[in-house]
Write a structure and sequence with these properties.
The protein is an alpha+beta fold. The protein is 37% helix and 26% strand. The protein has two domains: 7-120, Up-down Bundle (AhpD-like); 129-249, Jelly Rolls (Sandwich). Strands 1, 3, 4, 8, 9, 10, 11 and 12 form an eight-stranded antiparallel beta sheet that branches. Strands 2-5 form a two-stranded antiparallel ribbon. Strands 6-14 form a two-stranded antiparallel sheet. Strand 8 and strand 9 (197-200) form a beta hairpin. Helix 3 runs antiparallel to helix 4, helix 4 (59-70) packs across helix 6 and helix 5 (75-89) packs antiparallel against helix 6. It is globular and about 65 Å long.
């Protein structure tokens, strides 16, 4: 997933345009955005330790701590990372790093954050951003990470425990429909008139066009699947009623 950064141009764009471009376009636009060799989580880990080793605990260090938290490093893990690094870079530097890390992980840290981070580590795809554009069609919180928007639309959709989308239909005159490839956690898929099907990583669901259905997480598990849009003619989505709490509550 591409990392967008504008700090260089915002702060130094007129004074040092070349440096600003290298910062925004090369460092973040190319190096940070290359996940073939290292994930964003791994790059955050390396960066935090490198800055700590230099004794840099300024605003840039806080930014990278916040990025590390966002990229899935938990409070328990950052404590272990800084403790390990302390033996190699120096005890005073660790104290300074811990003061700031404690502040960052105290902000909004909860058991749900830890569970979300554990779920993220189970898959190679990013969880992405809150799925605000479609929040009105979900019961609970979901997240969306666009993986491909050309040729075929492929999106990693993540559901918090208990989250599911509303009943809906992928209409098409010809072709169309959707394919789900489950990548982490446990969830469900159900077509109207059929029993709900339990889903786990590795399962694939072929959703025909013009079939009413829903999918989402189990009550006790985060769940992620790739949603692959099948090309078709005159395609559209119709959102229907929510999955009732009574019906969903009967699922194990």
């Amino acid at each position: 997933m591409a990392v967008k950064q504008t700090a260089g141009r915002d702060i130094l764009g007129e004074f040092a345009p070349k440096f600003a471009a290298l910062n925004d376009d090369v460092l973040f636009g190319e190096v940070w955005s290359c996940e073939k060799q290292l994930s964003l989580r791994d790059r955050s880990l390396v960066t935090v330790v490198a800055l700590m080793a230099q004794g840099l605990t300024d605003t840039s260090f806080r930014y990278h701590l916040e990025s590390a938290k966002k990229n899935g490093i938990t409070r328990t893990e950052i404590a272990e990372i800084l403790t390990h690094a302390a033996f190699y870079v120096g005890w005073p530097k660790a104290w300074a790093a811990f003061r700031m890390a404690k502040e960052v992980w105290a902000e909004g840290t909860s058991g749900a954050d830890e569970a979300m981070a554990r779920h993220a580590r189970q898959m190679v795809f990013p969880i992405g951003a809150p799925n605000d554009a479609y929040a009105q069609y979900f019961s609970g919180r979901s997240y969306l990470a666009p993986l491909s928007t050309s040729q075929l639309g492929i999106y990693n959709v993540t559901f918090e425990p208990g989250c599911r989308n509303y009943w809906h239909i992928h209409h098409a005159d010809r072709g169309g429909g959707q394919i789900l490839v489950c990548v982490a956690g446990r969830g469900y898929y159900q077509e109207e008139g059929e029993d709900a099907r339990e889903l786990r990583a590795g399962d694939v669901v072929n959703i025909p066009p013009n079939v009413k259905h829903w999918h989402g997480a189990a009550k006790d598990s985060w769940f992620s699947h790739l949603a692959i849009e099948v090309p078709g003619e005159h395609t559209s989505n119709e959102w229907c009623a929510p999955v009732s709490d009574e019906a969903y509550g009967k699922l194990k």
